[in-house]
Predict the 3D structure of the following.
Amino acid sequence: MRLPLPLCLLLLLPACNSESNMTAGKADWDSGSGFGDTGAAAGDASDSADTGAPPSEDESDYLKLAPAATDQYVFVANPDRDTLTRIAVSSLEVVTVEVGRIPSTVQTTSDYRLAITLDEGDDAVSIVYAETLEVFPVEIRDNMNQLSLSPNGEWAMAWYDPNAESMGSSGGVTSFNEVSFVRTDPATHFAMAVGYDPAGVRWSDDGTRAVVVSDTALAVVELAGDTPARTIIPLVEDDASPPVAEEVVLTPDGKYAFVRQRGAEDLLIVDLDNGVVDRVVVGTDPTDMDVTADNAFLAVIARSARQIWSYDLANPYATPDVVDFPVDLPFGSITFTGDGARAVLYTNASAVDALTIWEVGTSDFDTRSLVKPVASVGLSPEGTTALIFHTKENAEDADSNDPFYNKWALTLMETASIGENRLLLPSEPTGYTVTDDDRYGFFILDGHDLLEAVDFNTLIPTTVSLPSQPAFIGTLPGHDVAWASQAHDLGRISFYDATTDALDTITGFELNSDIEH
Amino acid sequence: MLTLLLFAGCDPWDFPTGDTRYHDLLWDPAVAVLSDGVYVRLGVAGALVRVLPDGTWSEVDLDGAAPDSLLASPDGSSVFVTTSWEVCEDDDPDIVYASDCPSSRLTTQREMVLVRDGERVGGGALLGVSAALNAAEWTADGTLAALYLDPENATDVQFDGFLNLNEVTFVDTGATVNRVPVGFAPESVLFTADNRRAVVLSRSHVAVIDLATASDGCDAWSVCVTYPLTLDSDQAITPNDVVIVADGRYALVSVESSTDLYVLDLQAESIDLLELAGAPSVMLEDTVNNRTLVAYAGRPQIDVIEHEFFELASIAVEEPASSGVMTPAGALFYNDQQNGYKDVIMVDALSGDWAEQRAENPVIELRAGARHAVATMRAESASGDFYDSHYAFGIFTVAAPGTEDVPEAVTLVLESAPVGFATIEGDTADYALLLLSELDTILKVRLDDASAVAIELPAPPVGIATTPDGGFVVVQDSALGMLSFLDPADDAVTTVTGFATLRFAETPILPRRAAAE
């Protein structure tokens, strides 16, 4: 979701349905394929046609070229100039370094030590030390267009996603099975073939194991040794019409992977140590799964069954707890609060203008009606406040005289109490982020030169005028500061400090790449 | 005895350089006033003479060359003289005069010399310095000059073969020359306060040059950093104005036809852009409050930019301003471009408070000191009103906004057009020395009460300048040459005449014949 992802979340596919059609900080799981929830809509259409069921829940397709932040700097890749710009937030000092050709994305490691660019024009990654800006280029396999970093920053993996935009092609061989692992220190490249059409990677907490996910197989890559070693575990027996893996979750210790397949009526549990794949029963139409903050259990939403199935991660084969929904509504998404005490259940696959908050471990639900159906739900880090972004479309029984009718809207909702603030929006929200101290949230709107800052204590938004249309938004770890990169020929980014209500903007920083020393 | 102080920021030279009445006459009233005398170009004689207050004059040896133009240093220590001489490429010893030489063999050569104490520094021409350079910027201490071609005044520039418009030529007081390539068409040069660096504005670039002392990573007399003003090589960005602020840390560069203000961090070597309300007409640095004030010719607004975060605060005033000057009480803005705007506006950059006084006629020129500002004002020919149809002289009190009991501005209706004025700040009273066309007097106006005394001159004045020792030189309309030296302590006038009769009846012979051979 936002930049300083809790480690537990790095083990997961991004909390399903927590964003939709928006950008929210860093892309932890880029996918335009059928893997993950992202992009499932295409497949969902056929599913829906086949089954008459609502489509899969929709999850964000994070855009490329979003800046990346550490607690001190924001890094912006300049693919037109083959440079990486570092902006010091405290001083607005700008330093630009050359990286490889066409750096299409930049990501920072969780220890803030490195910024890593995927240089599509050179078929390389550049490992850049955040403080010194030393650059270590590493060649990788041809035509990779996706990048993921391990939680500890020791590894990066690049792969080719045919459904994602490529900003540069070397013209060489394009493989649909290869991935490139890059050790960041010393900078070393390891290529390997994994399952067909790799869609992403899941990392264990300690970064010693990576699981590369393909539609029909998992490649378990052991990273502790001098050379990565991989084992491919097939997920399906029927190669003729295999179900597509839609979501994968690793247990915290990296021993098991849970795989939710599109249209499947059961859940796969993969013993990664032994390469054994088992199936466990799950309710009808599993559409989402999420892990509690304490990593104790995995919850799977069975949308058609109107049930939550909870699996003990310490004993995945134990009989799951099953809780029925309190109402007959097709909730298909679940998001846990940061403290794990509650979970928000909702759907963005149907025009349902309600959600429910589940007191985890109980059968207690607090179902709330909404002004409009849900497009996506974001939570503050502790989960005390939910940002419920609504669709412009209305619920079936909506009153055309309602002020929210055919309008964009946002509801700020306290999850532990009844406080809320329903906001009519002038246009579609295109990105949001929250500070890691649970105090502020920020969102941006399509076509508007502004940033909205929400105080989670009061649920009151403050409009902050920006010099131009924001494109991406994020926050600085450890600070109540949001950054908003904006459309400008020469580069523009603004920093808004919510505690002081101060806005600083730096414009033209891409000129820095042409400063001759 | 009066302590004589020049009003800060005023141009000590007030000669009609654009006046054409003296073309091809005996002498050029565009004289250069140095501490060692007044240098006068004699057109017909092709000579440069130095006129002294004791009534004597002497010719400066230019080795037969004729002075074409003078560029004096602001501190009055020396003057650049562009010279030319005719060369006959026929070695016939009978050729003595230019008229003897076949026209096809007669050419003109040019050179630049530096003159001080009545002679050429170094005994000859400045080697490698083009005589086409028509603009010079000097360090505050007058020890170094940067010569370049000012395109706005280049219509009469003569050169042979080609002219390298990619460099700036630095000349120190010892006539040592250093040429530094800076990019095409350098149009303005500024020196940092410590005189260690020069900032050169060229087309689409700003170059920072290390001068005599090398710095880290930069050689002496070389471009240390070049800042681009655009990333599009097809786009020509012409800098319009520049101020160096915050003790030399930043250069603020405005460009033609743009609302962008480039903030060049000369220390961190980075660029930021501020978007202004329009193209600035004038920028002033308030060193006391560490702010820059920006006015716009087409907008009744003054913007104040602080120098820490470069945040901009706008002040709405009643009329646009095209010019301004800093005073101890604040920034004083006025409009000398459009007749309709007559406000003289004092702005406090810290508080944003402002106060206006009204000029009765459109301002031609305004100068300000610690207590008073004075302005010459043009007649409004279209007006039938008595006051408006006359030239005028305005006296304004310099007072911070909010000051109580500020005297009203005083306007003196003038008999004829003002041809120049100078100001004197004394311990007890301030004065203006005002020259009017066709009037054989200097009007010495006491600014506190607008009382005036007339100081007789032997001929009508055409210009006035301040000498480095605090005196004044009045150039007068006399065919054979006339300068009057005014001692402001006792208003004593010493007039020197007849210096333009040098070689009055002589036909100049072709110089440097031996060199030509």
About this structure: The interface with chain A takes residues 217, 223-231, 260, 262, 265, 268-275, 309, 311 of chain B (CB under 8 Å).
